[in-house]
Design a protein that fits this description.
single chain, mainly alpha, 79% helix, globular
Length: 408
């Protein structure tokens, strides 16, 4: 019997490249919040205008993700990932030169949003899933997600240092220099196009066309529940990445604490991704998702219900980091199990579109709540309540078996 680890060796370069692409695309994007306060003061835009740009980013990402997932089948991964790297560089260049809300919206919003649909979790996980055997899939997805968590650890402190010393535009230019590495990473990850999928089994998912797969997904209750819970996931996480720096500044904390907290999230994200990737290969991925969402909501309630200190902020960031991207290997693995590898990127993109609608609510809605009430209290209470409900529902649907047409 062939050792599955032997099948992993040819895929190492592909997996490393996918991880680098993912860590840069997510890490830079998650750290844009550190520029919000100095940017709003410098170019005279409001918090809600900045968060509108983040909302546009998330909507563009979500709407484009199923499309790029479907295009992978026709054009291949390499074309999509390299194009995504070019879009990311263009977005940061426009943002660095922004003189008002329009430049911020086009750069940080539209262009980076479209880039993320080509370079972030759905595409990177689809690359990793195709590159390794089934026995290693969940663990490898956890490894790729863990590597993808490192970007915020580097980007947030570097961006904050450049911003403090030279201004926020210098921080964005620093991000642009780091993002240039996405181009070779996307090219190497595209080697996965050479790997042929197994021949489809009649009646199973890989044999179906795109339209029938979309219909099957939208009629399958566990997928719909997972997508709905993913909506709440996006709302909670993007609310934090966008508004945590502002919240801490309002509470009188040192501005560097925001960068340290985002870096802490990235560091513990590594541990959480590794753990949930490993656990997803042993227990129900759906049940683990439910427990993760419930735990995350309880941690949010604890932190925002009392005045922050440097110690509690870093503890909160560590706990949230552990519960952050652990959803990524669990959802990617669930979609591959439900619908197969050929259409994984597209179907995962449909679930992710729901996530991005929630992200829009978390970013833009949080800004509107703050502008209206001068406080984030209503926003975090709403996020906690929805998170507890979504986690409970996700857990209840965890053990429903797929219909025969979708069985792998």
């Amino acid at each position: 019997m062939k050792n599955p680890n032997e099948s992993l060796r040819p895929a190492v370069a592909i997996l490393v490249a996918a991880s680098v692409m993912l860590t840069l695309s997510l890490g830079l994007r998650q750290s844009l919040g550190i520029f919000m306060q100095p940017m709003t003061r410098d170019i005279a835009i409001t918090v809600s205008e900045f968060t509108f740009a983040v909302a546009v980013q998330n909507i563009a990402w979500g709407l484009a993700q199923p499309i790029t997932g479907a295009l992978v089948v026709r054009l291949g991964f390499r074309t999509i990932t390299v194009a995504g790297g070019v879009l990311y560089l263009a977005g940061l260049a426009v943002l660095a030169g922004a003189q008002g809300a329009l430049g911020v919206t086009i750069g940080a919003g539209l262009l980076i949003g479209l880039s993320l649909a080509c370079t972030a979790s759905s595409i990177a996980n689809a690359v990793a899933s195709r590159a390794v055997p089934v026995a290693l899939r969940s663990t490898v997805l956890g490894l790729v997600s863990a590597a993808g968590s490192l970007g915020a650890m580097l980007a947030a402190p570097i961006g904050q240092w450049l911003q403090t010393g030279f201004g926020w535009r210098a921080g964005v230019v620093g991000f642009l220099v780091m993002a240039a590495a996405m181009l070779p990473a996307g090219w190497i990850a595209g080697r996965v196009d050479r790997i042929r999928l197994p021949a489809p089994v009649p009646g199973q998912a890989d044999e179906a066309d795109a339209r029938s797969m979309v219909r099957a997904a939208l009629r399958y209750p566990p997928f719909l529940v997972m997508s709905g819970a993913f909506f709440v996931c996006g709302m909670q996480l993007v609310f934090l990445t966008t508004h945590l720096p502002s919240y801490l500044e309002i509470c009188g904390m040192d501005p560097m604490l925001s960068a340290q907290a985002l870096g802490m999230i990235g560091g513990f994200n590594v541990l959480g991704s590794l753990f949930f990737g490993w656990a997803g290969g042993r227990w129900s991925k759906q049940a683990l998702l439910g427990l993760l969402y419930i735990s995350r909501s309880l941690v949010l309630a604890w932190f925002f219900s009392s005045a922050p200190t440097p110690q509690t902020t870093l503890l909160f960031a560590g706990l949230m980091g552990f519960l952050w991207l652990g959803v990524s290997p669990l959802i990617a693995g669930s979609v591959a199990e439900m619908f197969g590898l050929r259409w994984q990127a597209m179907i995962q993109g449909i679930a992710f579109m729901s996530h991005q609608v929630g992200s829009t609510l978390g970013a833009f809605g949080g800004g509107l709540v703050y502008d209206a009430f001068g406080s984030y209290e209503l926003a975090w209470r709403f996020g906690v309540g929805l998170g507890l409900a979504a986690g409970t529902l996700q857990f209840l649907f965890a053990y429903m078996r797929p219909p025969p047409a979708l069985a792998r």
